[in-house]
Amino acid sequence: xxxxxxxxxxxxxxxxxxxxxxxxxxxxxxxxxxxxxxxxxxxxxxxxxxxxxxxxxxxxxxxxxxxxxxxxxxxxxxxxxxxxxxxxxxxxxxxxxxxxxxxxxxxxxxxxxxxxxxxxxxxxxxxxxxxxxxxxxxxxxxxxxxxxxxxxxxxxxxxxxxxxxxxxxxxxxxxxxxxxxxxxxxxxxxxxxxxxxxxxxxxxxxxxxxxxxxxxxxxxxxxxxxxxxxx
Length: 231
What we know:
The protein has 231 residues and is of the alpha/beta class. It folds into two domains: 3-122 and 176-230, Rossmann fold (3-Layer(aba) Sandwich), CATH 3.40.50; 125-169, no CATH class. Helices cover 39% and strands 22% of the residues. α2 (71-88) crosses α3. The two termini are 17 Å apart.
């Protein structure tokens, strides 16, 4: 399968596939990279799609760059990528993992998206941050005072980030959306997903024995079947 690496502004991307009129933007999750799109691209390219995958800040080729993976950095970058895609392809769709889905909803709510595939999406970021604060026994008052707090589980709690999340709720999402949710997801509660599905008219598939990150052979087979049926 043909793939080409290049930059959109300073954003490293990889394009899978040949010349076509439609493209999927692939957005990886935490600790992923643009090459994470390869398995998805194997399916999508055979069905006539190109796949354009980007490195989030602090990921892939960007680990040494100064940009941080925060929404106020990512959203303007995503808008740049979307502008590039619209000029080159007639139809633009999205495939996103975990926090990548949340970044997409922040960035593309006003865009005409052909269809959207979310895997283990972070839907309610404020609730997730609240859970992490609880796990770390950090009060809101302490976070507001200290601004940033490192946790034992590798996440940095940030008052600025929480403040941004509260000021930018996901209250609009019109793209036809399919969600693959893992039955044993310990990060995203099922009731949060059900509420989002009902609010925005999405379709939900629950992967039995699945976890937030699809990694076992059984989980990857479930993901592949879901993708094959929907792309």
